[in-house]
Amino acid sequence: MKTSNPVNTLVRQGPDKKQLNWVPTVLIGLSIGYITLIIYIPAINVFYQAFHKGIDPFIANLTDPHFLSAVRITLLLALITVPINTVFGLCAAWSIARHKFPGRTLLLSIIDLPLSISPVVAGLMIMLLYGRQGWFGGWLQDRGIDIVFAFPGMALATAFVSMPFVVREVIPVLEEAGVDQEEAARTLGASDWQIFWRVTLPNIRWGLMYGVLLTNARAMGEFGAVSVVSGNVANTTQSLPLFVEEAYKQYNTEAAFSAAVLLALLAAVTLILKEILESKTRIKDKS
Asked: Is 144 helix (H, G, I), strand (E, B) or coil?
């Protein structure tokens, strides 16, 4: 009479599914608990601190001259750096995706540099280059050009930290689209400019918009690099994130949390637009 080996029977049957039913529940519970602790509770506290004395103090904080100046400077930083990084990102992505050249990997690594180093280090680099004791600081000072502790330094720092997003979002889209349509358009007599506007740009529009969205979010929310090079002078070199820190340090917590609410709302809008663009990209990939 043939007998079965208990070990082989357990291997064939595998673990009891009833014994593993608790694993997904525990993992989901841990994930929700972690997100609640790190994101939900701080976000709820920000809104509570901003509105716990009523809507009138919140509105008053939003009309404060220092707050309005910080908003204006933040918007100016975004209006300057986002278009610059968009143009650079398109040029760099097209060159990297469409051409093989020596140093291509090194160029990609340099573009990713702002993602791998601390923003404070980026601010320090700008200080060492354009500060009074920096490489170009003396030459600039002699000509009355202020970079550090002025708006140009803030713009440089913001442009640096937000540089990679358009490039990194457009390159995969260009590589996936290939060159067949562009070559066909060139065969039919289209110029390079016409190919870009009528073939390339429509193919990459969702990836480009996604990259611009991330660039804008980083530009408006940057703190570390800007804090090093700005001097944080109210009405002059104080962006909205710097306003939050300064107001909180001065025990003006209502103003700090009111500004934080505005930044949180900007983040929420960014997430909504991000989801819309991702859905558009998924629809395009399926079609």
From this structure: coil
